[in-house]
Amino acid sequence: MTTSAPRALGTTLPPVFPIGLGCMGMSEFYGASNDTESLATLAHALDLGVALFDTADTYGLGANEALLGRFIADGGPDRRARMVLATKFGIVRQAGQYERRIDNSPAYIRSACEASLKRLGVDEIDLYYCHRRDPAVPIEDVVGAMAALVRAGKVRALGLSEVSANTLRRAHAVHPIAALQTEYSLWSREPEDQLLPLCAKQDTAFVAYSPLGRAFLTGQLDPAALSTQDFRAHNPRFQGTAAAANAQLVERLSALAKSWGVTNAQLALAWLLIKQPHAIAIPGTRRIARLEENIGAARVTLSPEQMTQIEAVFAPAAVQGKRYPQAGWAGIETATQDR
């Protein structure tokens, strides 16, 4: 299998290009938005063969879904037919606040789906994720409510995000889980222990979000220059001594990328796609130039020796700082938090 070959996304969805597009930053968390620029990037992504477009009801408090709905409406049925549209439920926030609560109740799932369908302007969501997990609601009840949406023709396939291996097994026993979405990159390799092997075993696609470390791995980001409105400014990995230590790792990655004639982003994405043949990466961007750079990663080949060199730079113990501030851990399970 080459890294550019289509990858399976469960059994009821068509295979997709191994690099999708994360749309969150088009509407929130990474500074000011520009819908015109974002719409152009969405169109160019589709022209380049990108099929998986990832959003959620909490991104911009519905604004991101509405943006994708506008994009779909502008292109008509032909455009919609070329897309695999993924969205999520479960995170409830107030405008202007990062803090959140998690709602997995069956009634909320039904109402959230209807609201997403309306904002997206579609009759059916291709891939519907439980975005974050409420441990007070048994996962069997959560997936049962989601499966009812499949039977009703409102959803084609189900996904989970940031759950433990035990939760994934229990969920899959109720209804096939087409995709598990979790942060995974050179500086977030925890899924390698349990989740990635389990996904491969049960034919669940692994969808890696933040595969470029929220742009830190690109070597183009100065954490000190981030505005207070940028989520990353409050992320422990982007602060103080942790940021300085992580920057040293990126410098070493940059040296490898330069010597091999690729960019940091292409190297990080190529590493991921080669390392995990059943994974799909969804780097986010609002800019066409960055989109083209990311897509170019699917053409990069790396030898076993090069893979070893890359992993030696980003040994898990070398990465400093937690991947979320305290509020961001709501609804995230780990291997030691099976529920």
Topology:
Layout: E1 21-22, H1 35-47, E2 52-54, H2 63-81, E3 84-89, E4 91-93, E5 100-102, H3 106-120, E6 125-130, H4 139-151, E7 155-161, H5 165-174, E8 177-183, H6 195-201, E9 205-209, H7 240-260, H8 264-275, E10 279-282, H9 288-295, H10 304-313
Parallel strand pairs: 1-2, 2-3, 3-6, 6-7, 7-8, 8-9, 9-10
Antiparallel strand pairs: 4-5
Helix pairs in contact: 1-2, 3-4, 4-5
| Overall geometry | globular
Number of helices: 10
CATH topology: TIM Barrel
CATH level 1 class label: Alpha Beta
Name of the CATH homologous superfamily: NADP-dependent oxidoreductase domain
Number of domains: 1
Question: For this entry, what is the oligomeric state of its chains?
Answer: single chain
Distance between the termini: 36 Å
Q: How would you describe this structure to a colleague?
A:
This protein has 339 residues and is of the alpha/beta class. The chain has one domain (21-329): NADP-dependent oxidoreductase domain (TIM Barrel). The chain has 10 helices and 10 strands. It has helices spanning 35-47, 63-81, 106-120, 139-151, 165-174, 195-201, 240-260, 264-275, 288-295, 304-313; strands at 21-22, 52-54, 84-89, 91-93, 100-102, 125-130, 155-161, 177-183, 205-209, 279-282. The strands form 2 sheets. Strands 1-2-3-6-7-8-9-10 form an 8-stranded parallel β-sheet. The protein has a two-stranded antiparallel ribbon with strand order 4-5. Residues 335-339 have low confidence and may be disordered.
